[in-house]
Amino acid sequence: MAKRVLVVDDAIFMRNMIKDIFASGGFEVVGEAANGLEAVEKYKELKPDLTTMDIVMPFKSGIEATREIIKADSSAVVIMCSALGQESLVMEAIEAGASDFIVKPFRAEDVLAVVKKVLGET
Amino acid sequence: MTMDMSRYLGLFISEATDHLEALGRDLVELEREGSSSAVDSMFRHAHSVKGMASSMGFEPIAILAHRVEDLVDAVRQDRGRLDRDLVDLLLTAADTMLAQVRSVAEGKPPEDASALLTQLSQRVTVMTGHAPAATRVAKVTALKSEGGGSDSEEPGGEGSASGGSGAGNSGTAQGGSSGTPGSSGTGGSGSSDPDGNPGGGPGPSGGGGAGGSAPPSGSGPSGASHASGAGGTAHPGLNITGPSGAGLTLTPAHVATPPPEGTHATVVPLHGRRATDADPAQRLSPSDLANSLKAAASAPMPEPLAQRWAVRLRIAPTCQVPGVRAFLVHKRLTNLGTLVDLRPALEELKAGRIPDGNIQLELETPAGEAGIHAALKNVAEVEVVSVKPAVAAPVVPTMVPVPDGGRAPADTASRTVRVRTELLDYFLDTVGELMLATARLREVGKVLPENTRPALEEGVYRLHTLVKDLHDKVMTARMTPLSLITDRLPRAARDIARRKEREVDLVITGAEIELDRAILEELADPLLHLLRNCIDHGLESPEDRAAAKKGVRGRVLVAVKRARDRVIIELEDDGRGMDPAKLKNAAVSRGLLSPEAAARLTDREAFMLSCLPGVSTAKDITDISGRGVGMDAVKRVVENVGGTLEIDSERGRGTRFTLRLPLTVAVVHLLLVEVGEEVFGLPIAKVVGATEADGESLSRSRETALLPHGNSLLPVHSLDTLVGVPAPRKFGTQPFVVMDGDSGRVALAVDRLLGQEEVVLKPLSRPLDLLPGLSGVTILGSGRPVFILDVPRLLTA
Amino acid sequence: MRHVIFRVEKERYGLPLSAVREVVVPPERFTRVPRAPSAITGVMNLRGRVVTVVELRQLLSLPEGPTPPGRVVLLDRGRRDLGLLVTDVDGIEAVERVSTAPGKLTPAIRGVARLGGLGVTVLDPEGLDAAVVALFTHSK
């Protein structure tokens, strides 16, 4: 069965791109969220196998959202979407319980490689 | 797999336009109202545009957005940096990006804005102190019109992006590894000059060559900072020497070992502490757990206890952020057990300083070899080179020096450790609370029956002595010599002077004097700014100096002195001095002051006008002093740490900035006095004595009563009027406190003397720090807040 | 956005929830601050921190009269320990659509909104801060 993915980013552009990447890799994107608040709610509702999480977002940052998701479900797999220069934020997210990270601009094969590795599919 | 980005074009155009328009609105709002939410939202807009543009391969837009992001981030750190110039610049950048997006919408590639980029980059360098980082851009083509090779992109795109930051290194390695030399020749979006310098920038059309990375050959202001810029973004990919892994050294055995019980390892970095032996399983994913259970069952040594393993790892050379990767590994392993050795050290790892990507560590874990493999199995870009049982080093009893018996290692005697500053802050706060609690206990003791009191009092006395001693030790640990920040000044002076074509001798004295590190850290930027101010605005050009019959070389003196419980830092130049009239005019013309109020100001007060935002006598706003923190920020910082700033100047002779700073967050001895219903503290250090007299019978000189004291008559001030607190009129004899003032001794009339107390001085927070005549506040054992008076200032202000 | 709603006499005010650290009962007596402007009620000891308390009525230049010391609304303003003396705190409500207040506008007032049919004056935390600092700097 295809793994279920929740995509969190405040830009529709990014969400669409990430969705397409997952679709090309045989994943099923079951939901999207545009900010940290929504992300936590959607997570609890959908219980996806994997969540991609942008860091800089309005209302609630991706780090805070990750912390709350992990608190609610310690086995949650959250992959941070970061840019170069955000290293310390990503480390903070890892402290908060993020499983791994991908670096913008994304390349489909890099994203899928990390994701498959994290899910233990390689 | 190549992504066809053209289908995202419409979305990119509409969303980027939204963000850029919002960015413009935020900027205007920020300039008008200065709300911090506007800065955060600006940062998000710039960040989003950068991400989208770089994904689309629109390098000119991505770099502009990146620079804007840098600048907004700098403003976020210090709002004082946002001036009108910067707002103009950011608005121009937003407009330019909008135009670029429009041009993309018309199917044309976005145009370069190299002049603007240069301005932005310089601004970033000035504000952050280092050159901007390279912008990573995907090598994709979203525009159909850009021509044929649109589907030839492959890994080469990424290689060249990383090459953009490194000066002439990885080109061939990257080219080789990508295996698609054809694609890199276009250089279309490969490398971005970190400085955006038109002079040396390879630009999108630059003939970058095989790797697409031409080293920027920019000269001028950015030249010197290249090294740091490149260093900041360097990856291990720069040093690819083949995956041989040779040259690894084995872990030396003389590593300190935890106590036999294995409860807490002594050399674990502080971050690792959270992982205890009790919970490694909790944070593992179910599959990890299963694996480690299996591993435990089939472990070569059937010991249930934690066993030590030597692990060698390598971060893939293609990893873009090896520091984060290594940190993730660290996190996974500390979840598994206790890390007893780690090389490079955690701080180095986090900073990405990992020679050849090699990491070696020793881990105590019950999970076994298979458990370690399982924990790392799911981490991308990490290769487990080897996992072997480690030979346990001989057990060293403890880290604490043993008082007698020679078994303690020789180097424990004067060992120094690095302690996080937050920890030092915590110690200090806690000691302060301890002192308060002790004082409270003593209060309680006062109401106990006589016969039970001595035992408690003795206990409280001992406690007090211990806490006091602990406080002294904590304070000592926090003291740091000023050289920590003054050591940077000579280099800075040289750079500023060179840019300004000035000649300057910088003399620094007293840098060995120590100050609480919290205060010291705050002072770094203000001192640098004052130095700039002296050289840039204070010193004349060599010709002008010669004409004024001064030596051609200007002189800036930084003198640090210790005066009782204060440290005084003077920065003095022998330049042209400041003109109080010009400062007044500037303040009046900017509407900060009425002409009448300006006329009443003394020269000294007029000099302080330079600390109002927006007032400067500089005719030209140079890119040295006109930017960065202003004098208003300097004053604010100095006052926030409990200090004062004074400016003295004489036309033609020079200017002197005097910073009076508290040595530390101090314990002070107070004489508590009562006035009306209020209690105030007077520093014992300033109290000469106390006496009683009948206020009515004192002789007077004009309005002032005079108190005989020794051989002299002292002017009497009524403390209730000085502090503006109503008190009943007094009759008969009343107490007077004799104190040292700035101009001789004075007598203060009070209602009652309450006794002496030793208290922890709390600095005054805003807005109390704006009041003259207060030197701090404290909380008595009864819980009552009491102000400590600065009598000389009360008398003059 | 959620706001803390409180009253000075009968007038209702709101502050964004994010700008309020806590609401406390004022002590029996405040320590008076030497030479402070009259709008400063005094300072109080809040678990070891010295908090400056301002009478909101005077800060906003409302008609004279002492505020019965009902509650202190502590602002979350970084290093600054600042509290507002108010009559009572009503609760937390969502306040939408803040429109510009009629008449003279001070930076401390962001605007007015309607809540359950009644008007609420919405305050601006940074403006309040600035107004307090202005009290101290312009009083001389």
UniProtKB/TrEMBL annotation, chain A:
Gene Ontology biological process terms, A to Z: phosphorelay signal transduction system
UniProtKB keywords: Phosphoprotein
Gene3D superfamilies: 3.40.50.2300
InterPro entries: CheY-like_superfamily, Sig_transdc_resp-reg_receiver, ST_Response_Regulator
Presence of the UniProt keyword Transcription in the record: no
Record PTM 4-aspartylphosphate, positions in chain: 54
Classification via SUPFAM superfamilies: CheY-like
Response regulatory domain span: 4-119
PANTHER family documented for this protein: TWO-COMPONENT RESPONSE REGULATOR (PTHR43228), TWO-COMPONENT RESPONSE REGULATOR ARR22 (PTHR43228:SF1)
Protein name listed in UniProt: Chemotaxis protein CheY
Organism: Myxococcus virescens
Name of the coding gene: cheY
